[in-house]
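Reopening this one. Same input as before:
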Amino acid sequence: MNGTDPTLPHEQLDEASLLGAFLLDGKGGGKPLKWKGILSWKPEDGPLWIHLDRKAQDAQKWLRKRSGLDPLVCSALLSEDPRPRAHVTGDGLMVILRGVNLNPGEEPDDMISVRIWADADRIITLRSPRLLAVSDVRERLDAGTGPHNSAEMLTAIAERLTERMAPVIDNLDDLVDGIEEKVIEEPDANLRRSLSEIRRQAISLRRYIAPQREAMVHLQNATLDWLSPNDLASFRETGDRTMRYVEDLDELRDRAMVIHEEISARASEQMNKTMYVLSLVAGVFLPLGFVTGLLGINVGGMPGVDSHSAFTIVCLVLAGLAGLALWLFHRMKFF
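Same output, byte for byte:
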């Protein structure tokens, strides 16, 4: 069912829940619409793009009661924290994709989901936080260089989501390169914290990017009349790029692990050297401590108590013992 149910007045829907709507003109541009125009839209009017705030009550109300979509599709589009996937449902596509979070003050690996329903006449997108990839497509429409129909709109969103991932992954790669250079030049145990953060981000990104590749495979294999060979080729290219990002993240994770092990090995080596030196010092002073401790007991019969040269003799004996210990250590190749 492609139309909407106009039985309820449009005044009941808050315009704030509508992030944007365009009636595509088939030439790269579009006419902005509000709820009134959406409710009166018919498929013969042309392709329609509706962009909604997923958390807005009126957006949810319209999707469930007026969009004409199957209730199961509506539930999937409104679910919390969904994984990327794509399914053919009748003559339409239910697609859930993820994009990096490039909003100020946010972590890029806290990926934002965009939920999409697309058919021959209409495409509906929902998101909660702002997603720059969708904003890019909207700017292209405003400039008259945007998608011509719902199929091109779907491919454009998928492409921009993928393109926006590249700088984030490249930045992680640069961070690993910098840490690798520091490890070679001047190892620092504190670098392990930075590596742990990079590994965390790589794992978090991979969690959603890997299944997104599978979603692209489902899209490129979709057999729907309104998807052209060019659209399927675009999905294939986007899927290949997504797979490369997954491989890059795997490589980043492995490199970070190797560097982490190198830092740990160097820290352990440094600790072993320190303990070795302390062991040598203890080995030299252990016999000296034994002799001085023995001479320090307060009992009668201690030799040299009444001799003025006894202290000098003891010092010479201690020096001889230290020299003997050092000679033995050297002979045994301890240093």
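So the earlier flakiness isn't reproducible anymore. For the record, Residues 6-11 have pLDDT under 50 and may be disordered.
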